[in-house]
């Protein structure tokens, strides 16, 4: 983290990392180049994945409606609402992210591009909305992984032991995530690299990753074992693996 003479927290650009300051015009050009890369990168990647999630949400809703005969009205309404909420949160996330970069590099361009540094994204309601939406998305998606794990493993005698790790990881995601994304200031997830919240953000991200890997691996393993037993006992009684 660096500070300019006015005391604003700033990120170093390519010019400050490559060596001592040079021509002010070159440093300003580097600052603008860094800002453009951040804007284009975040919008391109975010927009692409938003398209994927929109298509996936539409496919899920279509499948649920087509197979509604297998579910009660209450269950169908719950699943459709779950898909709709996730899609709406994704929309809020990409829209809020766009607003954050707009406020930083367009509305407040005079201060955001003060060479030789690029300031951290501007504080405001948009950053708080993005942080909160991201936390709720984590809570819902990782909660769905635990529910899927429970459905597949609930009949096993090892279920109570295997369920401990996902629950602990989920608590790490929810509690510190709520503190850093919702309770903290609106720039907690956008601040400088040495921000004290960086450790909490890293813990939340790693916990979510480990939870998904753990649950997916054990679900796939149990289904694979069941498939092997089913094929080995074709036409006979084949109890679920325990």
Automatic annotation (TrEMBL):
Where, by residue number, does the polypeptide cross the bilayer? 76-96, 125-149, 161-183, 203-225
Organism of derivation = Coniophora puteana (strain RWD-64-598) (Brown rot fungus)
The protein's name is G-protein coupled receptors family 1 profile domain-containing protein
For this UniProt record, the keywords arranged alphabetically read as follows: Membrane, Transmembrane, Transmembrane helix
């Amino acid at each position: 983290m660096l500070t300019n003479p006015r005391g604003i927290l700033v990120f170093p650009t390519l010019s400050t990392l490559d060596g001592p300051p040079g021509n002010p015009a070159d440093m300003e050009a580097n600052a603008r180049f860094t800002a453009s890369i951040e804007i284009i990168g975040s919008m391109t990647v975010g927009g692409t994945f938003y398209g994927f999630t929109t298509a996936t949400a539409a496919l899920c809703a279509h499948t649920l409606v087509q197979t509604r005969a297998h579910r009660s009205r209450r269950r169908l309404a719950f699943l459709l609402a779950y898909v709709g909420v996730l899609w709406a949160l994704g929309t809020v996330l990409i829209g809020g992210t766009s607003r954050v970069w707009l406020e930083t590099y367009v509305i407040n361009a005079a201060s955001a591009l003060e060479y030789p540094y690029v300031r951290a994204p501007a504080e405001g309601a948009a950053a708080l909305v993005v942080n909160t939406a991201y936390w709720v998305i984590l809570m819902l998606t990782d909660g769905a992984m635990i529910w899927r794990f429970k459905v597949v493993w609930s009949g096993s005698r090892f279920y109570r032991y295997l369920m401990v790790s996902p629950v602990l990881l989920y608590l790490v995601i929810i509690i510190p995530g709520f503190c850093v994304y919702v309770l903290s200031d609106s720039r907690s997830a956008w601040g400088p690299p040495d921000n004290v919240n960086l450790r909490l953000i890293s813990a939340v991200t790693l916990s979510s990753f480990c939870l998904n890997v753990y649950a997916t691996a054990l679900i796939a393993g149990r289904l694979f074992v069941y498939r092997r037993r089913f094929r080995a006992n074709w036409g006979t009684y084949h109890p679920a693996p325990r």
